[in-house]
Amino acid sequence: MRNVILGVFAIGVLCGFGISPKSIRKIQNESRLEIVTKEERISEQIVAIKSMLKSNPKFNNEIVFLLDMKIMSGKNRFFVYDLIHDKIIDQGLVAHGLGSGMFSDLKFSNENNSYCTSLGKYYIGKSYFGEFGKAYKLHGLESTNSNAFSRNIVLHQYDKVPYEEQNAYICNSLGCPMVNQVYYSRIQKLIDNSKSNILLDIYY
């Protein structure tokens, strides 16, 4: 609450200096982003996911994978969420597309050869063996990620992705969510043991 009051006060001061309404709205949005926590962002996504699952019983309704792109790549931001008990049951580092950038103001694209991460909900499809070993095809469910399959966006492991959190940014992919081998082994068991397709939600 203190942060909110300070933010409102600061915006009032800026108005007095003749700052444009557009600039003020930008400041308001940035202030909100600082206030909204990881847990609050997860809660927002879970509400939408549970609503979606009610009308899509073919997907796994017990667990979902979440990828919070607001969190820097050196920190845990790939979450395994238990929809039954409403809690995170596992988490790890994940690399994103190099086309999206590395610092603040990331960009996202659904276009071929953009090497960007695409936001939106996916379902995890069949596995195959490729350059990075066993990987899983991703199928986009929204207009923002509808080209995922044709772009060869997959969930895979990579030995250069660290296991432990760090303060520095980690490596990038060509658009795929790419995780550490140890963490991947745990995710792989969940996918392979699931009787229905698991959802992956990438949000910002």
Short description:
29% of the residues lie in helices and 27% in strands. By secondary structure, the protein is an alpha+beta fold.
CA-atom Rg in angstroms: 18 Å
Summing up helix and strand content along with how strands pair, one would put the structural category as: alpha+beta
Distance between the termini: 23 Å
Write down the CATH class of the largest domain.
Mainly Beta
**Quaternary structure classification:** single chain
How are the strands of the biggest sheet laid out side by side? 3-2-1-9-5-6-7-8-4
CATH topology of the largest domain: L,D-transpeptidase catalytic domain-like
- Low-pLDDT runs of 5+ residues are 1-19, 21-34
How would the global form be characterised?
A: globular
Q: Domains counted in the coordinates: how many?
A: 2
- Largest sheet: number of strands, sense, barrel closure: 9 strands, mixed
Got a strand count? 9
Which percent bin holds the helix content? Answer: 25-40%
Mean pLDDT: 88
Q: Give helix and strand order, one letter per element, not per position.
A: HHHEEEEEEEEHE
CATH architecture of the largest domain: Beta Barrel
